[in-house]
Design brief:
Elements (H helix, E strand, L loop, with lengths): L2 H24 L1 H8 L5 H26 L6 H22 L7 H21 L2
Helix pairs in contact: 1-2, 1-3, 1-5, 4-5
């Protein structure tokens, strides 16, 4: 895959992260109703907090990619964040906190991590 295509795919991932983080932040109960096993005021608030971090990290990654920054730390740490998100969402499903469609989120994050780490390794 060319670096331009790789960057474009990561830009789309960053945009999806920004939009899903914003949605999670603004309507956490609705998102939890889709992938969770219910919602309490505390779980909705904590889910919104996670959404805020998704919004910020996604926007940072998007800005870095669009600016064609040579800073290697950003794609590396985005890869770490996406990999850990995949693991933690999977654990939440297997512990019964989220329902099986949340595994789609985990798969998306895992694939995003692979692409981010691959991009990081290709940067010079």
């Amino acid at each position: 895959m060319s670096m331009s295509l790789h960057r474009l795919i990561l830009i789309l991932i960053a945009l999806i992260t920004v939009l899903s983080g914003l949605t999670q932040m603004l309507v956490p109960g609705t998102v939890l109703a889709i992938i969770g096993k219910g919602s309490t005021p505390l779980s909705a608030h904590l889910f919104a907090t996670v959404g805020m971090f998704m919004l910020i990290t996604g926007a940072m990654f998007l800005q870095t990619l669009v600016a064609r920054s040579a800073e290697r730390a950003v794609p590396f740490w985005i890869g770490v964040q996406k990999a850990l998100a995949a693991v933690l969402v999977s654990i939440a499903v297997f512990r019964g906190f989220m329902i099986w469609p949340a595994l789609g989120v985990a798969f998306f994050d895992a694939a995003s991590a692979v692409l981010a780490f691959s991009f990081w390794r290709r940067m010079t």
